[in-house]
Amino acid sequence: MSQEEQGAGSRRKLNANMLGKLLVIAGLMFGFGYALVPIYKQICELTGVNILTPKDISVKEISNSQIDRTREVTVEFDANTQGPWRFRPTVASMKVHPGEMTQIVYEVVNKQSYKMDAQAIPSYAPQQAANYFKKMECFCFKQQTLEPNEARQMPVVFYLDPALPKDVKTITLSYTFFEVGMKPQAGAAQAGNGQGKL
């Protein structure tokens, strides 16, 4: 066998080894991507941050709750945005009795000239309050699609579990609202001119 043939055979062997390694890496990357969703959900549960927020309570649970009129808890509302839109609560805070059904409304304005999908992530302070803050209706349960320059009011219906520790006098509910979907097409106009502002 000539040197040239030996060299070609050696290259084929190296190429076959490289192909095998690349297939293993591709398989590992696919496995990691597949496992990323449950891992992310676990991290969100541990940190109290949750993108795809499930409903906290059912109507049956609300009808069984007892209102503790001997206590008042101040609930503060906060809004953060990651993008060119306006997002805010209609009131900064309110006093509620544990077990009492309450509603707050958040306002959002898409100040862009294109449609977008967005998601809100709730967080709580103190963090232990997340276990006692029960939402029945919330815009954070699903992604929101906003038309160009659209203004929208989005309610949150909640109650505080009466088992909330007595030393918790103030809870802050904070939402971060960020774009997750559609991006402007090439040559799209700049962000909206402010039409539809609240």
Walk me through what this model shows:
Belongs to the COX11/CtaG family. Exerts its effect at some terminal stage of cytochrome c oxidase synthesis, probably by being involved in the insertion of the copper B into subunit I. Pfam families: CtaG_Cox11. Helix content is about 25%, strand content about 35%. It folds into two domains: about 1-45; about 60-180, Ctag/Cox11 (Ctag/Cox11 (Pfam 04442)). The chain has about 200 residues and is an alpha+beta fold. Strands 3-1-9-5-7 form a five-stranded mixed sheet, with no helix packed on it.
Give the secondary structure arrangement, pairings included:
Blueprint: H1 3-47, H2 59-64, E1 73-82, E2 85-89, E3 93-96, E4 102-110, E5 116-125, E6 133-138, E7 144-146, E8 151-160, E9 170-179
Parallel strand pairs: 1-9
Antiparallel strand pairs: 1-3, 2-4, 4-8, 5-7, 5-9, 6-8
Number of strands: 9
Tally the helices: what do you get? 2
Query: Largest sheet at a glance?
Result: 5 strands, mixed
> How large a portion of the residues is in β-strands, by DSSP E?
25-35%
CATH topology of the largest domain: Ctag/Cox11 (Pfam 04442)
Mean pLDDT: 80
User: Helices and strands: which structural class?
Assistant: alpha+beta
Order of helices and strands: HHEEEEEEEEE
- CATH architecture classification of the largest domain: Sandwich
Low-confidence segments, given as residue ranges, are 184-198
How are the strands ordered across the major sheet?
3-1-9-5-7
Shape: elongated
Q: What would you give as the CATH superfamily of the largest domain?
A: Ctag/Cox11
Specify Rg, calculated over alpha carbons: 25 Å
Roughly how much helix do the residues carry, as a percent range? 25-40%
| CATH class type of the largest domain | Mainly Beta
